[in-house]
Amino acid sequence: MSTDDTPKTLTSIEKTLSIIEALWKLDGAGVTELADHLDMSKSTAHAHLATLARNGFVVSGDDQYELGLRFVNFGEYVKRSQSLYTVTQPVVEEVAEKTGERVFCMVEQHGLATALCVAAGDRSVQTDIRVGTHSYMHCSSSGKAILAHLPHPRVEEILDRWGLKQFTENTITDRERLYDELRAGRDRGYFFNREEYRTGVTAIGVPIVDDGDVRGAVSLSGPAMRLEGDWHQRDLPSRLLSAANAIEVDLSFNR
Amino acid sequence: MSTDDTPKTLTSIEKTLSIIEALWKLDGAGVTELADHLDMSKSTAHAHLATLARNGFVVSGDDQYELGLRFVNFGEYVKRSQSLYTVTQPVVEEVAEKTGERVFCMVEQHGLATALCVAAGDRSVQTDIRVGTHSYMHCSSSGKAILAHLPHPRVEEILDRWGLKQFTENTITDRERLYDELRAGRDRGYFFNREEYRTGVTAIGVPIVDDGDVRGAVSLSGPAMRLEGDWHQRDLPSRLLSAANAIEVDLSFNR
DNA sequence: AAGCTTGTTCGATATTGTAGAACACACTGG
DNA sequence: CCAGTGTGTTCTACAATATCGAACAAGCTT
Fold it and tell me: A74 and B20 in contact by Cβ < 8 A?
């Protein structure tokens, strides 16, 4: 390898963390199932699970181990400690109600976009994005909105880390094309996701900038057909822009 | 000790878990602060934090380490995977709206009561209980409702583990008195918390029983003065009982 | 620029996480 | 009813590795 980016990592801890992740992905699992899913001995998996269980991070019930309710505590805590959360939640709900579409507030961490708030309007599209769901930045409107306002080296770091995975035939997988798109969005003020993550689903995203730094983005997603109309092309962006602006003003006071 | 209940525990993992807990309690912390809060060397704390950060469980920003957004993902996942959550949320909201008080749905895990849903009415008391907050069972109305329907050895196990910590002068700290209270509540059908956790705050709790097992409880809390009126003494319990009943019916179908 | 903080890296030692075999237990099908 | 397979759990010996202290770099205030 050219760059050695393992500046000291505790392998046993990573084992535990991978167990936690696996219990999430597998929606609970038994000892042996985990052991050969993660290539470790049964006894090791058991020791880790026992330690996690003793500390309330994991529960053993229904013939399998599951993540414990302590995660609910930590999750709510982290969500609420994000300064954007309190400010954004009501705004997102209002936009969803007015437009009838599905509206998100997303923030970046570790190079991924995580949903902080989600609100559904009365004709919202179905989606697999819930609060806490993290997704790639290059194929979402919020992701692009955030990327476009991050320092360039950071953007490259993120793309190096996560790549530009293809989801649909519209997904932008070429780095230069993405940069063009970001530039265009920056000039325009808002960003698109034209069926780049799910076919049939289009989205519009607007960044939230505070004191020169992007703090996150608000986005709205709906069926491609509906969002392509002339009326929506002008109305929805301006609605999102004023929502983001309201949030920005609010943030500038709580500073 | 009479019983040796440490049947194999990984010390390094417990260190990591204690770091996670400390980052929550301290609302983020630096390396040295954590190190001497948890009696470990700076370098050890750093190694753990680096591992947690590399895996997205922790973020380093603002001159201190904080819990990362991955916890939001896990938290929402665990919350939603509780079968009670989906069923109870709308019911809890409805009761809160009708009564104007604060309403909870709580479930037991590891001997503590955790709030799954919280809804506020228009004249709700202030509280420090949010979704995910875990509290002792012996001094909450939901806790009593659940304890009263758990097998007796389990109850003793829980009380052994967590004790009967005193919060106010009304807190029941005597085990026999608690058993009497549980018996009375079981006959009555609903349970009280008479300023046993916070002075001035009274609560009424009702168990949710499915197929013979307690699954959780719904409770309503408000100022002691307001809940002591004759009207409330009859109206609120029956309202909660029918709410719990509706939930039970719902549960029996999704079985 | 000296003195205090931080956070970070490094290397040697002993603590401890690890694997594998053996265990108890539940279930299933002949 | 009892082999047979699947669990989860316990145990022990060994090698792997988490740990510590000291040394380091960087950011402060003085």
Answer: yes
Could you tell me if B221 and B121 lie in one domain? yes
C-alpha to C-alpha distance for A85 and B80, rounded to whole angstroms:
20
Among B4, B60, B70, most A C-beta atoms within 10 A, so best to mutate, is B70
Does the C-beta of A126 come within 7 A of strand C? no
Q: Per residue in A74-83, pLDDT tens?
A: 999 999 999 9
Q: Which two tokens stand for residue B191?
A: 């349970």
Regarding whether A21 and A109 lie in a shared domain, the answer is no
In angstroms, what CA-CA distances link B101 with A63, B118, B124? 39, 11, 4
Domain range holding B25? 11-70
Is B51 near strand C, with its CB below 7 A from some atom of it?
Answer: no
CB contact at 8 A, A203 and A94: no
Asked if B55 and A14 come within 8 Å (Cβ–Cβ), the reply is yes
Whether residue A81 is found in the same domain as residue A46: no
Of B21, B43, B70, the position where a domain reaches its end is: B70
- Distance, CA of B102 to C1' of D17, in Å: 51
- A29 and A125 part of one domain: no
Q: Tens of pLDDT along A167-213? A: 999 999 999 999 999 999 999 999 999 999 999 999 999 999 998 89
User: Using alpha carbons only, how large is chain B's radius of gyration in Å?
Assistant: 20
